[in-house]
Amino acid sequence: MRTGMASAGARSRRGAAVLAVCAVLAGGALVSCGDDGDGSTASSPTPTAPDTSRFSGEPPSAMASEAESRKAEARASVSAAESSASVAASSFAASVSADTERARAEAEKRLKQVDGRGNATGDVSLTGLPLSETSNVRALTVNITNSTDKTASYAVQVDFSDADGKVVETRFVGAQDLAPGEKAHPLAISRKPPQPQLTAKVAKAQRY
Asked: Where is this region: Disordered (predicted)?
């Protein structure tokens, strides 16, 4: 009887000791402890930290992330500036074309009121441009020089004639507010094919 009580007391003390050990281990890692009733205990292996020597590279730091963000913002800013410059260039080209069209329309209107060849044919000459430089388009430079001592504007009519002397096309160009001695070089561009050959001449030129 005493032997049985002593055995039970010993098992109780061992159980308490196992619980104490489990409590200590639980502070450092997750474990599983138990008493199978015969005094033996079981525990699961404690997880170990990964071997960082097998990793490559470094995790991104806060500073690195901020630097990448700033680079992305800079690239976006440059792209926006390039786009803006492109829009501005297109607007400028459209503005130049509008000015040319206004000068042409004004020259045509002015010359409708002129009898004869006008008062400024001596201030105007023509220079043909090679077809190789104009993508096979017939074009002439109209050279205008203000030979007076006052600011003046010019309206010029250029006629294109065929081999028989027949006028087959007429183009108008103009130059606005030229100072004394100032020159202008608008283009007279034919819409006719490069062949057959045509002859261009200053049909009218009016200074006003």
From this structure: 35-80, 185-208
pLDDT band at 135 (very low <50, low <70, confident <90, very high): confident
Which among 99, 175, 118, 190 is positioned nearest to 144, based on CA atoms? 175
Structural domains of the chain ordered from first start = 111-207 (2.60.40.3230)
Query: 78: Cβ–Cβ under 8 A, 6 or more apart, which residues?
Result: none
Model pTM score: 0.54
